[in-house]
Write a structure and sequence with these properties.
The N and C termini lie close together (12 Å). With 300 residues, the chain is an alpha+beta fold. The chain contains six helices and 17 strands. It has three domains: 2-59 and 196-216, Pseudouridine synthase (2-Layer Sandwich), CATH 3.30.2350; 61-194, Pseudouridine synthase; 220-292, Archaeosine Trna-guanine Transglycosylase, Chain: A, domain 4. Helices cover 17% and strands 32% of the residues.
């Protein structure tokens, strides 16, 4: 995996394609889309690590966002058709904004933006919106762990937001503006962290070459440290290679510091340096490999 610092003005797929050209013939994929105007952390998996995209997408994310109050748009950000709203009198105070933000913390029902990648009867919402078609998006439960106000001077509100997968920061801006009665949109967004990876570990896609790519690749064994880990013996390695179930000794199971809802267990080599497979316990307590990585060498 690579930790990219996506620049503004390109899609997440554009960033991945730059890595694809260097990594051919290996396939590539990313774990969590950033809209073209947004910048920051984009996790890009290469080769067999693309099979880990699903679990990486579930990692918590942290954003720095600027909301502009007194405006709204059809996309809920500054990229859409902007509508100006009269400044309220009196202007919202830091206290009133802070109190209003409390309702967006926790597990909340959030309606995605009309211009989003959410599927509606097999079509992307943004395709329907672009075509001018009427449709309704249902609210979905998302987890917002924390919202901190970084600065507030009308009309700009700067926030740090920590949230779970599937959360739309644009929707928080839209709903905050509606609740304050003055409108709001997201005018900038930077993803500063995904799980344990932050901007200090990120590299610009433009700085990478065939010579430097290997320097920034992260060992796949590190990508599953948020899961329970089961170190395996040499005989168990061969069973895993063949897709056979292995017994689970509870005293060898290493639990993560933070509990996870993912039922996966990472099967690693005895020295914990190689990811052998992802497994799930079956009804008899055996570990059933469901994604085996043993056919290729580990990345050091």
């Amino acid at each position: 995996m690579l930790v990219l610092d996506k620049p503004a003005g390109i899609t997440s797929r554009d960033a991945v394609n730059r890595i694809q050209r260097l990594a051919r013939p290996l396939r590539t994929g990313h774990a969590g889309t950033l809209d073209p105007p947004a910048t920051g952390i984009l996790l890009v998996c290469i080769g067999d690590a693309t099979r880990l995209v699903r679990i990486l997408q579930l990692l918590p994310k942290t954003y720095l966002a600027r909301f502009t109050l007194g405006q709204s748009s059809d996309t809920d950000d500054a990229a859409g058709q902007i509508q100006q709203h009269p400044a309220p009198d009196p202007l919202p105070t830091l206290t009133s904004i802070s109190n209003c933000l409390q309702q967006f913390i926790g597990t909340i029902a959030q309606t995605p933006p009309a211009w989003s990648a959410v599927h509606v009867n097999g079509q992307r919402a943004y395709d329907l919106a672009r075509a001018g078609r009427e449709f309704t998006l249902s609210a979905r439960d998302v987890d917002v762990h924390e919202i901190s106000i970084r600065s507030w001077t009308w009309p700009h509100l700067d926030l740090e937001i920590s949230c779970g997968s599937g959360t739309y920061i644009r929707s928080i801006a839209r709903d905050l503006g509606q609740n304050l009665g003055c409108g709001a949109l997201m005018s900038s967004l930077q993803r500063t962290a995904v799980g344990p990876w932050d901007l200090s570990q990120a590299v610009s896609p433009d700085s990478l070459s065939l010579d430097t790519l290997q320097q920034h690749i992260i060992n796949p064994a590190r990508l599953v440290d948020h899961l329970p880990v089961y170190p395996c013996t040499e005989s168990e390695r061969e069973d895993i290679r063949c897709g056979r179930r292995i017994p689970c000794s509870p005293d060898r199971l290493v639990k993560p510091a933070q509990p996870t809802d993912d039922p996966s267990i990472a099967l690693k080599s005895a020295d914990m340096q190689q990811l052998l497979a992802l497994a799930e316990p079956d009804s008899t307590g055996l570990l059933r490999p469901r994604a085996v990585f043993l056919h290729g060498p580990a990345v050091n």
